[in-house]
Amino acid sequence: MAYPTVSAPYGFKPINRIDGMPYAGATRLIPIAGTYNVAIYAGDLVQVVAAGTCEKFTGTTTGGTVGVCVGVQYVNSLSQFTPAQYYPGTSVTNAYAIVVDDPMAAFQVVSTNGSSAVTAAARAVVGANLSVVQGTGDATTGDSGQSVLGSSAAATATLPIRVIDVVAETATGADAFVELIVKLNTHQYNNTTGV
Q1: What is the DSSP letter of 123?
Q2: pLDDT value at residue 3
Q3: Is residue 93 a contact partner of residue 110, using CB atoms and an 8 Å limit?
Q4: Ranges of each domain in the chain
Q5: What is the pLDDT of residues 79-111, one digit of tens each?
Q6: How far apart are CA 25 and CA 70, in angstroms?
Q7: 152: helix, coil or strand?
Q8: 89: left (phi > 0), else alpha (psi -120 to 50), else beta?
Q9: Which of 183, 2, 41 is nearest to 102 (CA)?
Q10: pLDDT tens-digit readout, 10-43
């Protein structure tokens, strides 16, 4: 049975820890400011800002992240508690992002070009740092459009993502992998400078 074709980005999907331990599903609820009007999708990188609230990480080559949003909860315009796949950015109150914020967490992500088209990366990308491609989230599925720029591999310390491994099952050639295993290289919890 062949591995399903990866046709589009889906954000960052937690799979385990970089020390090999299984991902146990640990998350943290981080509040989203009532005035924040940017959608946050499942799989989006997020950051804690100076107000102590959660916002979508919108950087590409620099900036710290606190983790990955895997869902949200809020009170909708009908005053109903709503667990959801994504934060719509409007007409909600008491919103919280459900965040995988473990600095040791490993994530599976798609390698793309600058236009979010799936593009394979060579195994030589392992150990390098990469930039983020923002993409567009999907309001129907609630999935993120974020991915990594496979061609951006460099030793640059400020790049937000570090590649740990490739996903062999998604190889499209002898040395062409469309999914990578990564960690957050510029995790906010590991930065000695606060927000």
Answers
A1: G
A2: 67
A3: no
A4: 28-100, 103-189
A5: 999 999 999 998 899 999 999 999 999 999 999
A6: 10
A7: helix
A8: left
A9: 183
A10: 999 999 999 888 888 899 999 999 999 999 999 9
Between strands 105-112 and 147-149, the pairing is parallel
Distance CA 149, CA 118 (A): 10
pTM: 0.94
Residue 177's H or E segment, with its range, is strand 176-177
Pairing of strands 54-56, 179-184: unpaired
1 pLDDT more than 50: no
Q: How far apart are CA 128 and CA 118, in angstroms?
A: 19
Please give the backbone phi and psi of residue 168, each rounded to the nearest 5 degrees, phi first: -60, -35
What mean pLDDT do residues 150-156 have? 96
| Total residues belonging to the chain | 195
